[in-house]
Amino acid sequence: MRLAAVLLQVWPTVNPLSQLLLLDEPTNSLDVAQKVALDRLLREFCQSGRSALVCAHDLNHTLQQAGRVWLLQAGRLVAEGDTHEVMEPGLLSKVYDVDFHLQAVGEQRWIMTKTA
Prior knowledge:
Layout: H1 2-10, E1 20-24, H2 32-47, E2 51-55, H3 59-65, E3 68-73, E4 76-82, H4 83-86, H5 89-96, E5 100-105, E6 108-113
Parallel strand pairs: 1-2
Antiparallel strand pairs: 3-4, 5-6
GO molecular function, one term: hydrolase activity
Enzyme class: hydrolase
InterPro entries: P-loop_NTPase
């Protein structure tokens, strides 16, 4: 319910002067259908010429949904740019101290951890 209230405050038809939406882990408590609905709303919001800045730890969701990424480590900017340039296994491995690899499934890429 709080997320709906936030969206209403910045939605273009309600507030034509809004330009930026800030969200911190907005999908954490959402089920799959709600997550997809939020993704659609965020896409529509951004396509209207506005920006959404979303803090998230779900690497695959970020890879699939974000247009640009700021990658932070201990509060410091490590990399920023196009999603597919920043969300690379080598860089992510350095930041998270975990070995990653990319797995292609059809047209989509997925970030996977390497297991022993």
